[in-house]
Amino acid sequence: MDEADTKLRKAGGRLCCICNQRRAALKRPKTLEQICRECFYEVFEEEIHQVIVDNQLFKPGERIAIGASGGKDSTVLAYVLSELNRRHNYGLDLFLLSVDEGITGYRDDSLETVKRNEMQYGLPLKIVSYKDLYGWTMDEIVKMIGLKNNCTFCGVFRRQALDRGASLLEVDKLATGHNADDIAETILLNILRGDIARLSRCTSITTGEDGPIPRCKPFKYTYEKEIMFTYAYFKRLDYFSTECIYSPNAYRGFAREFIKDLERIRPRAILDIIKSGENFRIATSTKMPEQGTCERCGYISSQKWCKACVLLEGLNRGLPKLGIGRNKGLNNGRKKDVKQTSGTKSIESKQCGTLDF
Ligand code: SF4
């Protein structure tokens, strides 16, 4: 034991297990190592850099939009990607892309955070709104449909809004702040819902390569606790932490709580769920949806009309439940008065609740 170690131990401190010089400031949620802040910043950022390099997420010269909600994940993503881009000469042009769902008292406030991030990180910001794209705000939709299924509308519209915003920015890729906890939760939900098509692709670090704009998740293996309670907190990043006022999503909430319980007992559980998801082999007899384009708006769709057009048609016709659930609505060849159903199986678009995009 050297002199510095002895002094620290006498003062009741513990040395960082990486540099063995500075006082440990935290126990890493992912590995339970006791480390100092400086070493934490370094390993946190370098792990993300390694994920980017190993998975070839970006190519030099690419234009990348960062899905920015003002929440902790996307704020940390914007900050870390800017840092890594400079430090490792990725040669990327980075942009912030936000969606204004039209939720008074929530998104208007969080967008103010994104506007500050635009100045703080020097990244150009583009905001696309549901009102401009679809003619409806979420406030208006909730007024019509109530608080059941609102996240289905929001999730479907957001997915398409991000693609439309990305194409306006003429970017090559969209990077989102989905973290390891989100991925583990989505794997679990897809198993619980028997959604094999989504199960087979929800673990991919890059998706949509056959669509208009590929999406990637640089935080695929990054723990939420490290993003929020550690990195964002220690770095004093400016993010918005209020939950959406329309966030019901009880089913996803149960899955989330279950994963948090597992993590408390065994921190590796999150990575192990992801690993299991990555190694699932989907039976060749499983019918997968065929990708085409929506006859109405031209957006990618495995049906005659894309989900956003079906939902929009329902809203505009005063039949808001049209298209909720599987195999219902206009795509089933039923032109009107479709039997209304409740519940949804669509979780691809990260129906957020407390989550970022
Ligand atoms: Fe939209 Fe998320 Fe709010 Fe649901 S919780 S209404 S998906 S912002």
Give a short overview:
Mean pLDDT is 86; it is low at 333-351 and 353-357. The protein has helices at 3-10, 37-54, 72-87, 107-121, 130-134, 138-145, 150-168, 180-193, 196-201, 224-234, 250-265, 269-279, 307-316; strands at 26-27, 34-35, 63-67, 93-100, 125-129, 173-175, 206-207, 215-216, 292-293, 300-301. By secondary structure, the protein is of the alpha/beta class.
Helix-strand blueprint:
Blueprint: H1 3-10, E1 26-27, E2 34-35, H2 37-54, E3 63-67, H3 72-87, E4 93-100, H4 107-121, E5 125-129, H5 130-134, H6 138-145, H7 150-168, E6 173-175, H8 180-193, H9 196-201, E7 206-207, E8 215-216, H10 224-234, H11 250-265, H12 269-279, E9 292-293, E10 300-301, H13 307-316
Parallel strand pairs: 3-4, 3-6, 4-5, 6-8
Antiparallel strand pairs: 1-2, 7-8, 9-10
Helix pairs in contact: 3-10, 8-11, 8-12
Bound molecules: iron/sulfur cluster.
Iron/sulfur cluster binds next to helix 7.
